[in-house]
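call fold(seq) -> C-alpha cells
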Amino acid sequence: MQKVNNNGAAFSIQRAAWVRQLVLALMLCASLGFVTGCKEDEDGPSVENANLNPIDREFLEQAVQSNLTEIQLGQLAVQRATDSTVKRYAQMMITEHTAAHADLRNRATAQKWTIRDVLNDENQAKRDNLNNLQAAAFDRAYMRSQVADHQVTSGKFATQVDQGTNPELKAYATQYKPNIDRHLVEAQNIVATLGFQ
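ret:
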C-alpha cells in the first residue's frame, strides 16, 4: 500500500477544480458562439466577424496591430525620449496612425467587422521592453524598432496591394502604403543621423 502525500492530494484536488472551471468556461464560450475567440490567454484575434480569405485577414490583423502599436509606442516615446527629433517622430506616429486607425475602423464598421483595440502579446512585450529603458538607450531602441516594424509593415501592405481581394482592404493598403514607406525612410534617417545603427 502506497502512502498518499497530503500535499500531492491537495494539489490534485486543486488541479481538478481548475480543470472543471476551465471546462465550464469553454462550454460557456461555446454556448454563446465565441469558440473561435475564446483562448486560454487573452491574446485573441484583433478582428472578429470578418469572413475574409487568409491574405486579407492577415493584412487586417496586421494593420490593426501596427496602428495600435505605433500609437502606444509613440505615446511612450513622447514621454520618455530625450532627443527632440525622436519626440517629433513619435508625435507624428501618434497623429498619423490614429487617423489611419480611425479610417480602418470606419471601413470595418461598414463591413460589419469587429476590431478589438488590444495589443497582441508580441506587441505588448515590445512596449514593456521599451518601457524598461531610459534616456539614450530608449531613444536608440525605439528608433531601431521603428525601422524594423515599418519594414515589415511595408511588406504586408505591398502584399495586400498585389494579392488582396477585398476591395476595402486593398484600397486601404493602397492609400496608406506611401505613408508607411515615408515613416520608414524618416526612421532610417533618424537612426543614421543620431548614430543609432
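The chain has two domains: 6-37, 47-193.
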